[in-house]
Amino acid sequence: MPLLRVNNLILHFRGVTALSDVSFEVRRGALHAVIGPNGAGKTSLLNCISGVYRPQRGNIQFDGADVTKLSPSARTKLGIARTFQNIALFKGMTVLDNLLIGRHVHQKEGVLAGGVYYGPARREEIAHREVVEDIIDFLEIQAIRKKVVGTLAYGFQKRVELARALALEPRLLLLDEPMAGMNAEEKEDMARFILDINEDRGTTMIMIEHDMGVVMDVSHRVTVLSFGEKIADGTPQEVQGDPAVQEAYLGQSQG
């Protein structure tokens, strides 16, 4: 059974159709890319999966359960995490504190117990810090762990946002243009980390990305949207050779 099933999603905004009868599946352990020209509905699709938007029709099944009507926080507790096209970090806080905030869904002890920092609360805090420190090592951000996020270069901020999403220990990670605005070296690093998260940690991922070289190199499967409709779905090689994709995405048909 696929980890995620998107069934016949329809999403309207004041008469404008953002998604029109979109369906696809994401298998467990896959790195699944969603591509398409600007305005194709890619971010709207991620917003439906994460719970920010609720479609007018259709449903979303996660691990066999219908989550269409669940809140974003409820979906986070089930194991759905995401990063954003525009960085959404607490920029006045340190890298370490941002990652510890990402552990909130796993907190079991109450606020009072945590306040006295005794017994089970202390042990839980130590366990959370161990998870966070492992992620810091994994993403090679040891040197900036105590720096205020707002003082960091853009590429490092994108990496910290990825780290915070990992702190949620997601079963499904949604990446909205993780390499947007990066230079070639930063893109290479981010692509490597994304591959490592998928292969070493076994995390299922859905990635929106405009860099077709990256998409074709790292993805197991690609879904293509155009004007809110799914026009192709298959392996990178199948999608790359699809005349409909070339027409919509590249602006020309080579078939």
Question: Any overview of this molecule?
Answer:
The protein has 255 residues and is of the alpha/beta class. The chain has two domains: 1-79 and 170-255, P-loop containing nucleotide triphosphate hydrolases (Rossmann fold); 92-167, no CATH class. Helices cover 38% and strands 23% of the residues. It is built from ten helices and ten strands. The strands form two sheets. The chain has a six-stranded mixed β-sheet with strand order 6-7-8-3-9-10, with helices on both faces. It has a four-stranded antiparallel β-sheet with strand order 2-1-4-5, with helices on one face. Helix 3 (95-101) runs parallel beside helix 6. The longest helix has 19 residues, at 120-138. The model is unreliable at 109-114 (pLDDT under 50).
What is the topology?
Elements: E1 4-13, E2 16-26, E3 31-35, H1 42-50, E4 57-62, E5 65-66, H2 72-78, E6 80-82, H3 95-101, H4 111-116, H5 120-138, H6 154-167, E7 172-176, H7 184-200, E8 204-208, H8 212-218, E9 221-226, E10 229-234, H9 236-240, H10 243-249
Parallel strand pairs: 3-8, 3-9, 6-7, 7-8
Antiparallel strand pairs: 1-2, 1-4, 4-5, 9-10
Helix pairs in contact: 3-6
Estimate the helix proportion, in percent.
25-40%
Order of helices and strands: EEEHEEHEHHHHEHEHEEHH
**CATH superfamily membership of the largest domain, which one?**
P-loop containing nucleotide triphosphate hydrolases
In the CATH hierarchy, the architecture of the largest domain is 3-Layer(aba) Sandwich
**Tally of DSSP helical segments:** 10
* Shape estimate: globular
CATH class of the largest domain: Alpha Beta
How much beta, percentage-wise?
15-25%
- Order of strands in the sheet with most strands: 6-7-8-3-9-10
Please summarize the sheet with the most strands. Answer: 6 strands, mixed
What are the segments in which pLDDT stays under 50 over at least 5 consecutive residues?
Answer: 109-114
